[in-house]
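Homework-ish question, so no full write-ups if that breaks the rules, but can someone show me the predicted structure for this set?
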Amino acid sequence: MNLTDTLKNITGVVESDSNLTEELREDIINLIAEVNVDPTPANLRVLSTVLEKLKDTTKYLSALKTFSSFESTNLSA
Amino acid sequence: MAEIAAAPISVTPEARAVRAGGAIGGVPELAKLKLSEWFNTAKTEVRKRIGLTKAEAKIKGNEQADPKIGELGVKVIKGVGDLVEKRGEYLEKSAYSRSARATDHEKKLQALREKPVEAAKKAAEYDIANTTLQMLDLPGRVGPGALSRIEQARELAQRVIDTSSEKWHGFWAERDNQVAERDLDTAVKYGEGAKATHDFADKFESIISSKEGLSKLKESKTAIKSEVDQTTAVKEKLAGQFTEVLTTGADIGKGGAEQIKQQDVAEIKKQEQILKDVQHSVTAAGTK
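A: Not a homework solution, just the prediction itself:
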């Protein structure tokens, strides 16, 4: 899979991510588009950093959500 | 009374430590905290572990990147920070709401559990009333028939008065009459006490034997059970959402949710490795 296809796929996933706000989603898609136009190593590193943080955010927030639910129930007793 | 509904699951501190620690990558001290403290620590840990500040510094330090792309990257990182903050606040409010509902459930259950206690107290009073009657040497026990026996005592006393008045005159007659009146007063006094006890017993028996009362109690139990079931369903739904969101998060680097079917922790770790590999390949592709 070449770079353009990879970025296209990532764009598709971001577009369908309901956890993101509309504004944040647009910014990420714009960033991907800009990197696709000028895919220098430095620009790709920026995108890679952003995607990594996005992944961590989703993972930790979903974990926080699930376990806060258990905590709220068990700690109320 | 049989147990009305399952009590909230009792989670040991050790189990909570494992669970909460696993939630945000190993923070066992969370298990010792109250809900508000739990959230404050959890949110702080989440922000720290995501490392947004470092990421922003990393992008700003990438001087070779296009300034426009750098600015966009920083903007996205800040946006992610806002998302974490807002989502954390929302989750905290939701948790307090759930906590309040759980407390309400517990109160309702406790109220139902206390009903047998109230009944037992009344039964004890019932026994005391009967014992009192026996000590006063009044006939019978509290319940149907007690009143008729009290009335018999009244009639007996009255007959003594009447008989005394008719048979004897003068001092002895008067004396007997006084004795008879005293007996009557005693009978009335005991009678009133016994009647109050009798009324109480009747009321108690009507509560116990009332089909409507038992029906209402049964309906309350069903409603509570239903609410507990709904709470369980919400928990299961949240667990499902967790898996779904985590899958999407891991897919961001890989590009294609259908390519990943995560089932367990090992699979999650595998996905994270795949993501890193993809990110490296993206970087490598850019260098060609």
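Now go work out the reasoning yourself. Hint: Residues 1-26, 245-264 of chain B have pLDDT under 50 and may be disordered.
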